[in-house]
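In response to reviewer comment 3 from the previous cycle, which asked for concrete evidence that the modeling workflow produces usable outputs, we include below a single protein chain processed end to end. The sequence was submitted unchanged, and the resulting structure tokens are shown without manual editing.
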Amino acid sequence: MTEAAELPPAPDAARAVFGEFFPEAVRYAELLADAGVKRGLIGPREVPRLWERHLLNCAVLSEVVPEGVMVCDVGSGAGLPGIPLALVRPDLKITLLEPLLRRTNFLQEVVELLGLDHVTVVRGRAEEVLGTLQPVHVVTARAVAPLDRLAGWGVPLLRPYGEMLALKGDTAEEEIKGARAALSKLGVLETSVLQVGEGIVDPLATVVRVEVGESPGGVRFATKRAKAARAGRARRRR
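The workflow returned the following structure tokens.
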């Protein structure tokens, strides 16, 4: 069994980024380094680089998220990027969407412990909550799947003219090229690659922005959403 590494002190950049919620960010880092490793949510080798590679890398996503919108973090896992984003942006209403029970249990514990009243944990897959989860302005994701598959899960959850923001690596441009046909079918109008976190993280965090038109997910998902909405109204009338 690999011995857990020690969590390093928070860098100065963390104090600047998390501001008044810096104590909560420290507590979250401690939970990831302890319970997160014990429950298999992150690998023990990630503990020494939790701040730079994970918490700060996710928190800087806030630079490109509009104010006061609804966000769904798809495949939230251990809460990355959803929880760091929630800590720096209390103006957002965030749903952490995750299908695995052990992960949603951890997420619920973290949300309650940190007092994140603007965060909701939902257990399920994106395709399962379509039509029951209120459409959001922004979908976020990190290290979930290649862009074509990720868009198939995340884009249908958007409201018209919403956007998906996916934290990616050096292959972002290649992923966009390979996913163009799939993105077009999903009603995507524009894609771009953004660099965020200047002066905070090195290297800069890479974000793929996927912007949709009036039919997020395309015709097939519009039909599926309408059907789910009708079923929901029928259930409420009973």
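The CA atoms of residues 123 and 136 lie 17 Å apart. We consider this sufficient to address the reviewer's concern, and the full set will be provided in the supplementary archive.
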